[in-house]
Amino acid sequence: MIRIVRSDLPAGTVAEMAVLTRAIASTPVDDRSEKARASWRSQAKVRSSVRSVLGEMAVGFTTCMYCGESRGTDVDHFEPVVRNPLRAFDWLNHLLACSTCNSHQKGRRFPVDASGAPLPIDPTAEDPFEHLLLTLSLGVYSPLTEKGEATIAVLGLNERGLPEGRKHARKVVALALREWDRARERDRSDEMAENVRTVQDQPFADVCQSMLRQAFSPGADVVFSDCPDLLVLLRREDLREALLR
To answer: Distances in Å between the alpha carbon of 177 and those of 139, 151, 201, 242?
Structure first.
């Protein structure tokens, strides 16, 4: 999971969603959840607009904003509609998710802390790396905070083959970065750009971003002890700028 920058919706969609929210608010409290779900299902144009902007926000080939592996096919309500019907058409409550994360993992699960604040991480509102540490050699996440622990549990971030996928992603990143360096030595800017795109377009963008961050961590020499040449590359300012653009 990585930080996602939220874009703006078209003004027409924003206006339509405000009208729909007011309609839900005017419904008796006990009927709001059903009203919100029915309204969401019936508003194909609004859903399409929301899905389109989320797709533009997502990394790579519109990958899931939760697991980072599968293609994002669903518009997920971060805070479930059944819990808060008035957020059914709240743009800040929409994320792009794969069907597994949306329906089978997260679903209606939405744990909160003692103050009532959500424990799952919203990658458009906070930096996941403040709550999660990725062990690159194992492809496994460890929690740094209570939010990190809840997010791992709710989304199954260490389950369903995700660790193996992250380990494979690390190998792809390493190969692409070494090819980038060889192209740099030959002054082949086109090949350099192609290798950057290879890294940016593959699933598990969290792996590369974690590698970039850990390259300057106190234990970087240990983390990259099996590939010191890669550590040198990850610390190059021109490469970092290209990868994070």
So the answer is: 19, 30, 14, 11
156: left (phi over 0), alpha (psi -120 to 50) or beta: left
Tokens read off for 78: 């971060």
> Are 223 and 214 spatial neighbours (Cβ–Cβ below 8 Å)?
yes
The predicted-structure confidence for 135-193, as pLDDT tens digits, reads as follows 999 999 999 999 999 999 999 999 989 999 999 999 999 999 999 999 999 999 999 99
Q: How far apart are CA 83 and CA 7, in angstroms?
A: 25
The CA-atom distances, in angstroms, between 137 and each of 91, 132, 228, 232 are 37, 15, 14, 18
Q: What is the pTM of this model?
A: 0.91
For residues 219 and 12, the answer to whether their CB atoms sit within 8 Å is no
